[in-house]
Amino acid sequence: MKDFLQNKIFNIISEAADEQNQECYVIGGFVRDIFLNRPSKDIDVVVVGSGIELAKRVAAKLGKKANLSVFKNFGTAQVKLNDLEVEFVGARRESYQRDSRNPIVEDGTLEDDQNRRDFTINALALCLNKDRFGELVDPFGGIEDLKNFVLRTPLNPDITFSDDPLRMMRGIRFSSQLGFFLESNTFDAIARNKERIEIISKERIAEELNKIILSRKPSIGFILLEKTGLLELIFPELLALKGAETKDGVGHKDNFYHTLAVLDGLCEHTDNLWLRWAALLHDIGKPRSKRFDARMGWTFHNHNFVGEKMLPEIFKRMKLPTNEKLKYVQKLVTLHMRPIVLSEEEVTDSAIRRLLFDAGDDIDDLMMLCEADITSKNPDKVKRFRSNFQLVRKKLKEIEEKDKVRNFQPPISGQEIMETFNLPACATVGEIKMRIKDAILDGIIPNEYEAAKKYMSEVAKELGVNG
Ligand code: CTP
Q: Can you tell me the distance from the alpha carbon of 150 to that of 122, in angstroms, rounded to the nearest whole number?
């Protein structure tokens, strides 16, 4: 085990702890990640005594290179050394009250400290004192659980989750991130304690959701959220996608599992968190726009627009950023049908120009999302869609090279229109401007100033405006 503690910071902590005559361990995620071969820069150190005193001594030994921050209220301290962050805390025993995540904390032993941790694999400790340097302390069989890819709480899971309900989200996130399984008793306890999630802040929940979405196969996390009943409480709009109704013998696909297939598929090509969110939300408007028509069967008309309108409220409630990230996701949700429709029809230059104009710099992300959206089980259909998509991509490239409409700014401004025709700011100015834009996008005139000016005069004449 000593091999894993080669960084000289561990020797310095070891010396400092011995000088203070205190037991000291590296614990938690850092130790877990050693065994999982996931290098980590966040080191948690537990000392049976004062974490702050030990941190001060370590910082003094490191001299100027290190940066010490003390959090007196929490009884913790942090030492930063280059890109390493070491948190020092005294071993604790905790007792919780029902309505708060904030426990009553008392000094405790290493065992007390390990007892209060979330999962056996996160309760592993490596001793740092010189005479026991590298000795593993694993009271709950964490190593065995690591080998078997199992997530299990050290204590009765009802206590562990009720004490700190965020751990339910963490367990599901670790399943998704590490490909581990929730041991059945642990899983059942999440289902039993799900209502306790209400004492967790929306920000913390969003943080875990982001980590699930950033994992290699996010569907694992979302299926567990659904199965434990947490999804209904934290993200009911997503749960509403679940189910496949049948009427007069006509069914539709289950949009929950379809959405997850799209998200997993997209994740093979991008780590962009907000593009991944767009995949998760692309069909969010379907339940509200679902209709049955005897002739057409099931339809979801305008579900993209309905979805786009739902997003501000969802982002606000879930404490997701309501800035340009929201706008980006809205744009992709609104536009997500366009490339598919194009690939089904004959692709006109004008339709391609309009798509480029509307998507702007996000066109490549939109195309990636739409390609992931092809999840049909019929291989012929998938093949046909994919080859049509190639055609759309080729056309997009050609038209962009030729017409440069991706970040198109109309060559004639509203100001110029007003000055030319001596008009105040009014609807007519808007109309002339829009007609010029449409003419360029439809390929009636080139994207050039002179052509636009000439066209402007024609439109003005038609509208009875005299210059
Ligand atoms: N921990 C816990 N319950 C929590 C949060 C943390 O028991 N709600 C314990 C676990 O032992 C965990 C350690 O504190 O390993 C450190 O927590 P943190 O740094 O948040 O998580 P990591 O497990 O290191 O994993 P990650 O950084 O991926 O969140």
A: 12
Q: Ligand 1 pocket, 44 CB below 6 A?
A: yes
Compute the distance from residue 44 Cα to the ligand 1 centre, in Å: 9
pLDDT higher at 403 or 63: 63
Structure tokens that stand for 230 in this block: 């947490």
Instruction: Report the C-alpha gap between 151 and 170 in whole angstroms.
Output: 10
What pLDDT score was predicted for residue 376? 79
Among the residue ranges 59-73, 125-139, 256-270, 404-418, the one predicted with the least confidence is 404-418
Contact 46, 77 (CB under 8 A): no
**What domains can be seen in the chain, in order of their start residue?**
2-148 (3.30.460.10), 149-234 (1.10.110.30), 414-462 (no CATH)
What SS3 class is residue 24?
Answer: strand
Please give the sequence-ordered ranges of beta strands (E in DSSP) within 300-416, or none if there are none.
Answer: none
Tell me which of 36, 117, 161 to substitute to probe ligand 1's pocket, judged by most ligand atoms within 8 Å of the beta carbon. 117
**In the prediction, which pLDDT does 403 show?**
75
pLDDT number for residue 98:
67
